[in-house]
């Protein structure tokens, strides 16, 4: 039986970078290939850079991680085909629309709001894949089927190879065996993305009259362990510089992965790893007319794992716990003898209310923060 030819789709051509002089964040660039170096100096320098990045910034660039640029651009072409090629039918948009109140982002998000068709136009269209969306063709657009072999291969490598190596590096910082975080923390329950998810997303230019709207995604921390975000030319991602107390732009590095750490790792490391505060804003004026295509994988801890520090780490035993930030709020529950949630409960609660806008604003040291409360835990993010 002859196999049908795969449809041809337009290539993804990176749009031009901004020419504006922006306040760029100074982030460490880690060459992941050095993790396999036979030179001890290479390894030690890599660990030093990693320690700085995860304790100070929570954001870093990752290069030489094993995915060729042409494969990366091909994945962007598939994302472009899905979101810009009229591939998702109107029936599929309704049937597959996200139901965020359940604590899941699975499926199609239209260009309004974040909760099952609620909200006004925000110009953000995406499709989010959990394991069921990878395994069941009925849970994804039929027009994507010819490309699912490539999609699975790409994201399986990102999860099982790139993220595993990253966790190996982080395990070494914690002075634990190389595969400690992979074996004991990272979820493997499901196809490709386990209990995490990956997403194709397009930020479209705002509608007429809304061009000046600056906020696309409110300031937040990611919930899980690590986020693998492929760097894109349209500047819109900003990271909070806690020392300078200001937002700074994340610069485009062709082919690089932008890595940020989530709340799970901050809590699991007792505050030693920083959950990165970040947001997405309107691009600079010379890019505001262009769509911003993005591809990202959000990795998660095992759902049955309690959200509390890893006591096995010699570094944590030696340096103690840092009772501040997100972990500080968990520490209050631990000190009071209260039960803390497992990761599955925490994720569902956080996702159900994420991106609804700050519910309450408070001022701390002259900086405005949004205050959100989940399971009795306060989370503060700069407005």
Automatic annotation (TrEMBL):
Record-linked Pfam families: 2OG-FeII_Oxy, DIOX_N
Keyword Oxidoreductase included in the entry's annotation: yes
InterPro entries noted in UniProt: DIOX_N, IPNS-like_FE2OG_OXY, IPNS-like_sf, Iron_ascorbate_oxido_reductase, Oxoglu/Fe-dep_dioxygenase_dom
Region ranges (Disordered): 1-20
GO terms of molecular function: metal ion binding; oxidoreductase activity
Domain Fe2OG dioxygenase: 193-301
The keyword Nucleotide-binding is assigned to this record: no
Top-rank taxon: Eukaryota
Keywords: Iron, Metal-binding, Oxidoreductase
Cited Gene3D superfamilies: B-lactam Antibiotic, Isopenicillin N Synthase, Chain
Family classification: Belongs to the iron/ascorbate-dependent oxidoreductase family.
The protein's name: Fe2OG dioxygenase domain-containing protein
Origin species: Kwoniella dejecticola CBS 10117
């Amino acid at each position: 039986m002859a196999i049908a030819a795969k449809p041809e789709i337009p290539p993804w051509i990176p749009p031009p970078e901004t020419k504006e002089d922006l306040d760029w964040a100074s982030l460490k660039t880690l060459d992941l290939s050095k993790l396999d170096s036979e030179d001890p100096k290479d390894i030690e320098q890599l660990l030093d850079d990693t320690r700085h990045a995860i304790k100070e910034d929570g954001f870093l660039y990752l290069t030489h991680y094993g995915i060729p640029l042409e494969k990366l651009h091909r994945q962007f072409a598939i994302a472009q085909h899905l979101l810009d090629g009229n591939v998702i039918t109107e029936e599929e948009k309704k049937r597959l629309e996200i139901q965020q109140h359940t604590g899941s982002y699975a499926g199609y998000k239209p260009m309004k709001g974040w909760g099952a068709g609620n909200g006004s136009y925000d110009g953000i269209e995406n499709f989010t894949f959990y394991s069921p969306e990878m395994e069941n063709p009925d849970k994804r657009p039929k027009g994507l089927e010819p490309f699912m072999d490539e999609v699975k291969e790409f994201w399986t490598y990102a999860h099982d190879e790139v993220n595993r190596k990253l966790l190996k590096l982080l395990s070494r910082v914690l002075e634990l065996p190389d595969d400690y975080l992979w074996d004991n923390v990272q979820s493997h329950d499901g196809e490709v993305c386990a209990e995490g998810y990956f997403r194709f997303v397009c930020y479209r230019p705002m509608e007429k009259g809304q061009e000046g709207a600056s906020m696309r995604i409110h300031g937040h921390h990611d919930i899980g362990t690590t986020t693998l975000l492929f760097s894109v030319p349209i500047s819109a991602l900003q990271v909070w510089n806690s020392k300078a107390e200001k937002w700074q732009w994340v610069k485009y590095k062709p082919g690089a992965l932008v890595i940020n750490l989530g709340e799970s790792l901050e809590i699991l490391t007792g505050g030693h790893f920083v959950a990165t505060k970040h947001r997405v804003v309107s691009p600079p004026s010379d890019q505001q007319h262009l769509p911003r295509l993005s591809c990202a994988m959000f990795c998660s801890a095992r759902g049955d794992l309690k959200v509390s520090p890893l006591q096995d780490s010699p570094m944590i035993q030696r340096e103690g716990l840092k009772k501040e930030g997100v972990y500080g709020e968990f520490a209050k529950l631990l000190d009071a003898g209260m039960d803390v949630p497992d990761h599955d409960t925490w994720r569902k609660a956080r996702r159900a209310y994420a991106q609804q806008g700050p519910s309450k604003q408070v001022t701390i040291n002259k900086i405005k923060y949004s205050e959100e409360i989940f399971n009795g835990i306060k989370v503060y993010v700069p407005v």
